[in-house]
Design goal:
The chain is 29% helix and 23% strand. It is globular. By secondary structure, it is of the alpha+beta class. The relative contact order is 0.12.
Length: 716
Amino acid sequence: MDATLTTSRRGFLKSGAGAALTIGFALPTTGWSARLEAATPAVFAPNAWLRLTGDGTVTVLCGSAEMGQGVLTAIPMLLAEELDANWKRVRVQQAPVDQAYNNPMFGMQATGGSTTVRAHWEPLRKAGAAAREMLVAAAAAQWKVPASECHTEAGQVIHQSGKKLAYGALVPAAMKLAVPAEPTLKDPKDFRILGKRTRRLDTPAKLDGSAKYGIDAQLPGLLVAVMARAPQPGAKPAKVDDSKAKAVKGVQQIITIPHGVAVLAEGYWAAKKGRDALAIDWDLGAAKDLSTAKVSDMLATGASQADAIALDAGNVKDAAANSASTLDASYEAPYLAHACMEPMNCTAWVRGDTVEIWAGTQSQGPNQGILSQVASVTPAKVKINTMLLGGGFGRRFAPDFTIDATLLSKISGKPVKLIYSREDDMAAGFYRPASVAKFEAALDAKGQPTMLKCGVGSPSIMAASGFMKIPENGVDSFAMEGIADHPYDIANQRLAYGRTEPGPQVWFWRSVGHSQNIFFIESFIDELAAAAKADPFEYRRALLTKQPRYKGVLELAAQKAGWGSALPKGQFRGIAVAQSFGSYVAEVAEVSVAADGTPRVHRVVAAVDCGMTVNPQTIERQIEGAIVYGLSAALYGRIGFKDGRVEQGNFNDYPVLRMNEMPKVEVHIVQSSEKPGGIGEPGTPPIAPAVANAIFAATGKRLRHLPFDTAQLKTS
């Protein structure tokens, strides 16, 4: 890892490694097998990912983080398919931090952007295919027959005569063979594992309690730390009185570090009581007057003045002048917290010139470089134990909790487990950006759009991340994704970004810019359909003639939902479609609105085209989970500010969808021969506009702000 990484929050990952986009592929074999053979001679390890032992057990090492999205099953499936392994003998282990496990799309060992399967689709399959060819060669040599007379199936090499050898028996011979540089991959029609519904390998451990999350880490002499964190980035403690905190039984140390004041104690409760007893006067600096209203005003101005051009096509001025009618609308989305169920936590132990952490992190590789600077050691002296993540959604890509835990261990000389309370994390300053989008459209006499203008005012994730630069054209691609690349056939367009920085730290949130931008554009397209007095599904369909994959999921969702057929009295449908992370998703929501304005989502029908599939069961569950996440945000999600401080703290004022509110969800998967797309995030963007559009169908009232202001829907 590059040791030039910085430790500042906003300067996170300012190394070239973080900015790299690696498309090529190289099978990591050099030195790996030799290192493993020296330690365990009975292991066949032709590459970094595979270990095959004499008893036939196949162990696959996964370098990605498991946060519920199923990579601890998907990665083994990729390799096992080409290996022709017996799936019942396949096991999975979390890989250490090593460049061999770098995400090929990131150029670093990290998990995010719904990239794991699509990034490893070829590398892991090649790894399995190479091992299969070596095992076949070993068996052919033993039988003294041509390798072409042999095939593999369920962990065995089989000769055309009927002779069989189990993979385990071939380990000693296969270990001596050269690794093929370009193994032959299977034709997808011959897949036995990929594309089949498969139970997850990590489920049994989660059911019996043996699965270990970051918060489960325990060490002798461990101190638990709870911090009083700055309520805004840049805020500093003007005055600290820790006398009452020191008097709390069990409190061992109180340490001030750049991000706040930490109380270290013998257990969490003592540490929390000590932290709560601290008397701190915070200097909020420029943020002291920050309010939700001020944020809205700033973003609206940014949208109105947007001049960083993401797309400029045709002549919008003439198109507007020659139109039959025009339509304009403004939309807004708030800052959002990630609200992971497992609190942010990290256990760190700095001993001399070594650092070891136990954490659920999405960025193992970057953390190794960052923490080497924090502890003033070489990256090789930093060991990252990747634990299971109790929800990530982008939040655990940030390094704040690993940095602070390491600092506290270094200063205290003890192993330290840093734990954020829910309130700590809500105020920690890693939010989905708030955003305002202002649209203008021109329609011809038939109601078809001839011109589209949009200005987006939003903070920049690219600037906040520290490992990316805003391009020379000034357009943050995250702020404009879903709008700048929308699929609709409109001749004249001007789509622009107006960077606006109200102050709060922004970060990646599940589906990133698509999470708000698809709500914006899919709601506005619905408004255009209404203005044209056209069916919303047919209106979209007519504008997607050049987008077969968009059109395919739109039509499938409409068909499966029975678009146009009768619904129970009081229920109405809305539809939306989106592409994100290489996958296409359309969703139809069936909604009713009570007299007090409360909407109820009864059913969601989703169609997804994510290319070739690994595990349909995982796809279904990820779409279901993404709908829960997006619907929670649409109905309730909001981080607001008053006098410079965050107003929300826990699920009492930042609600998520409850079980009795959960709609029935149907997921329909398009059979495709396209390359795989991502699946962890694409189900989130369409749900908010689908519901908003259904509410319009039910009430005739257009909801343009998130979360939905249901007060305007009251009829009694």
